[in-house]
Amino acid sequence: MTSKSQSVLKIRLPVWRARLLVTLMFLGFMALAARALYCQSVNKDFLQAEAEKRYSRTKELIATRGLITDRNGEALAISTAVETVTANPHQIKFESIAPKKLIRLSELLDVNLDYIKRRLTQKKTFVYLKRQISPSIAREVMSLKLPGVSLHTEYKRYYPNGEATAHLVGFTNRDQKGQEGLEYSYQTTLAGKSGSRRINRNNKNQVIEEVATLSVAENGTELSLSIDRKLQYVAFSEAKNAALEHEAKSASVVVLDTLTGEILALANWPSFNPNNRSSFTPQLLRNRAIIDQFEPGSTLKPFTIAAALEGNFVTPKTPIDIEDGRLRIGGRTITDDHPEDDSLLTVTQVIQRSSNVGTVKIAQKMASHDLWEVLSNSGFGKSPKLRFPGGASGSLRAPEKWREIDQATISYGMGVSASLLQLARAYSIFARDGVLIPVTFEKRTQTVEGNRVISKGTARAVLKILETVTHEKGTGSSASIPGYRVAGKTGTAKVAFGGSYARGKYRSSFVGIAPVSNPRLIVAVMVDEPSLGSYYASVVAAPVFKKVMEEALTTLGIDPDNYIIKQEAKREILPGPV
């Protein structure tokens, strides 16, 4: 060891410097300990939340929307799994992505390349690139192996019957929320309740761990409708054919079960395809059979007769003088569309031949309140208590506001309005011995109770009168069905427009009941503004009724009247219990 080295070792540092160094080290450790204690206790929740933002996610467990089926279990609305392409722009660096891959991505998603670039440069951690694509396209997208791009499973609603049930079932948006029809009305029931699950992801947005299920998804409840899918298609097809054949603005058909109040079919033309949103327009979305109001014309006459019979003002055989088919009231002339050779018609013949003058003269025998009460109790002027959006209530003014001309025109269906469904339901008082039944879109298995409007005797008398309409001399002879007794009424009314009636525009309608010996079905038809050929209901609407009613009777296996009468006769002669 050299003398120089020995001299260095002999040097002694001041004690205060060592103590200062130790003190500073101690204070540093204390500061770190204090910081650690602060982070672990006082600021624990904030820091933990910040950390979880970087790796922990809450994943929604989507509830499957409930099926909508017809009365026989056939699907009318189904939810199918589809893929949605999403991205995290924070994980994407354009300089590292081959331009060919971006071009291919825009081609697969059928969107503009500039749109892709705009979405991927947003200051967000989650964006949609394309929602609800097919699994095959989704696989091709993932084969590009783009960082930050991933798939998210969603559900898309599919409607197997397309246009035929569109107005009835409605549709959902991309988030599976009902927008129209029964999809909207039963949103809460069908949607169910989504669940959630805690997951951990890595920096590539890949799931590395499923931590826990926070809540279990509750799938939507299946909705079983009263609709018969086969009968619905027939009603839709006949409405479409009638509209096209007569170049009409629209056509609607309603079929009711008189025992249960079930709506077995409700169809409109024009319609739309709920599986193709590009076909949607406000006019096409209207469920005309429920929303549109129109003056029922002569189909309202049976209610005038019912009111007169109920008040004992007339009998079916009471003679009515229709004079020359013209009647002057308050400066207006009421005329008959079907001139008669005889000036005297019975009450039955007034309906059979649809005499406006005869109906007015019968109405004049009553007070305005007598007619109003039957119409009001039959559901006119009131919205049906039906779980469906936008149901029309129609219009029926209070009797105190009726002038003499008002009572006259209302008696044959002018100056009062109703939807086709309201009109069909009102006819249940003739099919159910005077009882107005509640109607429904939900499947029922038991006979439904209703509210009495007229007596059993009056109802059966009017039903018998309506049966003559479909006989040879009646205005609805084209609605007759071989083997079945049919009761019904034609209606040809001018279209009200701007406070008056549009020239040359009419609505043709027919409402009928079968079989008369044991009424089971009501079919109502309305064709709006037929412009090719005849516009009379006997030519336009009655044949549609016949085709739909024939199919309904066959589909439901309803026996012909002759068979029903024979069976009743056998029961009457069977010996009683010993």
Can you put this structure into words, describing what you see?
With 578 residues, the protein is an alpha+beta fold. It folds into 2 domains: 59-110 and 127-224, Alpha-Beta Complex (Penicillin-binding protein 2a (Domain 2)); 229-273 and 286-569, 3-Layer(aba) Sandwich (Beta-lactamase), CATH 3.40.710. It is built from 23 helices and 21 strands. The strands form 7 sheets. Strands 2, 3, 4, 5 and 10 form a 5-stranded mixed beta sheet that branches. Strands 12-11-21-20-19 form a 5-stranded antiparallel beta sheet, with helices on both faces. Strands 1-8-9 form a 3-stranded antiparallel beta sheet. A hairpin with a 5-residue loop joins strand 8 and strand 9. The longest helix has 28 residues, at 15-42.
Task: Indicate the topology.
Elements lengths: L2 H7 L5 H28 L1 H12 E6 L6 E2 L5 E13 L11 H11 L3 H8 L6 E7 L1 H9 L5 E10 L7 H4 L1 E2 L5 E3 H5 L1 H5 L3 E7 L5 E9 L7 E2 L4 H17 L4 E8 L5 E7 L12 H4 L2 H4 L9 H10 L8 E3 L4 E4 L2 E4 L8 E3 H6 L3 H8 L4 H10 L26 H8 L8 H7 L1 H4 L3 E2 L14 E2 L3 H14 L17 E11 L2 E15 L6 E8 L8 H4 L1 H14 L5 H13 L5
Parallel strand pairs: 2-10
Antiparallel strand pairs: 1-8, 2-3, 3-4, 3-5, 6-7, 8-9, 11-12, 11-21, 13-16, 14-15, 17-18, 19-20, 20-21
Core attributes:
22% strand, five-stranded mixed β-sheet, Beta-lactamase, Penicillin-binding protein 2a (Domain 2), alpha+beta, 578 residues, disordered C terminus, five-stranded antiparallel β-sheet, 23 helices
